[in-house]
Amino acid sequence: MISASDIAAKAEKPRRWGWWYITELRLREMKGYLSYVVTSSFGNPIIYLLALGVGLSNLVPQGIDGVPFLVFVAPAMLMSTILSVGAEEGMYPVLSGFKWHKVFFAIHATPITPGQIVAGFFVHLAIRFAFTAGIFFLALLAFGAVPLGTGWLMIPIAILGAFAIMTPLAAYSAQLEDDRGQFALIQRMVVMPMFLFSGTFFPISEIPDWLEWVAWVSPLWHASQLGRVVSYGTVEPIWLTVLHLLVLVSFAAVGAILTRRAFIARLTR
Questions:
Q1: Range with the lowest mean pLDDT among 12-26, 164-178, 195-209?
Q2: Residues 42/136, Cβ–Cβ less than 8 Å
Q3: How far is CA 130 from CA 89, 242, 258, in A?
Q4: Which one, 90, 162, 205, 255, has least CB within 10 Å?
């Protein structure tokens, strides 16, 4: 017969390492769509660089911001790719864990806490973001679009940017009972405008004044500008560079807190 002390001893390890168990679970689940992750991580940067960076650069021979067009758009292409992955991961996978697969409820039936579920979910995504960003960065290096010395800093910036958009969406998704078109609306009204009006292919000074506010509240613009600072050293006031970082950290931190609260509320009600 198992004693209470034996049960307590067996439960201690999940309580301590529960977040890693969730990370491991999520990584194992990726085996089901690993081919998509790998091919998209390799294919997307090549397609983007050939179609937008190389092809479109022929139409802008004078360059932008004092550098060739490919060098200007390279950081933004990396950021937009990783932030798009972040947006996707903050919607359907979260709702699925509560509604369709109910895996979050199954995990919560063990000694693992809601906070550990969120932590493991975030660690898994950090690994995925880092992998995709690393592959994209290597492609940019191969095309001579970024330097190796400081350019690698775009990888942690991209990860931070992805969390800046993923965590608020995850907090929202964790409160939904069903998808009645909300995610499609977010894609059309949030993600797509963010991509179009965040200075991805041209400075935001070219955007009409009444639309510039979209860039200022967009994690993509702040991440892209930070990427340009570490890539080719775009000139901007130091306060603006600090602001980019603060905005991304604020989005990610507040979103993470709200996500944790939403998970706790839904799993314990």
A1: 12-26
A2: no
A3: 14, 23, 23
A4: 205
Q: What is the mean pLDDT of residues 129-156?
A: 91
Q: In the block, which residue shows the tokens 């973001």?
A: 129
What is the distance between the alpha carbons of residues 195 and 220, in angstroms, rounded to a whole number? 7
Tell me the C-alpha distance between 149 and 90, whole Å. Answer: 32
DSSP state of 150: T
DSSP string, 77-115: HHHHHHHHHHHHHTSHHHHHHHTTS-HHHHHHTSS--HH
**pTM of the complete model:** 0.89
Q: How many CA atoms lie within 13 A of 97 on its CB side?
A: 26
CA distance 99 to 106: 12
DSSP, collapsed to helix, strand or coil, labels residue 63 as coil
Q: Are 223 and 160 in contact (CB under 8 A)?
A: yes
DSSP reduced 3-state for 64:
strand
Per domain, the residue ranges of the chain are 23-268
Among residues 68, 168, 81, the alpha carbon closest in space to that of 128 is found at 81
Q: Six-digit token pair at 117?
A: 């579920």
What is the separation of C-alpha 214 from the centre of its chain, rounded to a whole number of angstroms? 19
The pLDDT of residue 224 is 95
| Residue 58 contacts residue 109 (beta carbons within 8 Å) | no
Helix (H, G, I), strand (E, B) or coil at 198: coil
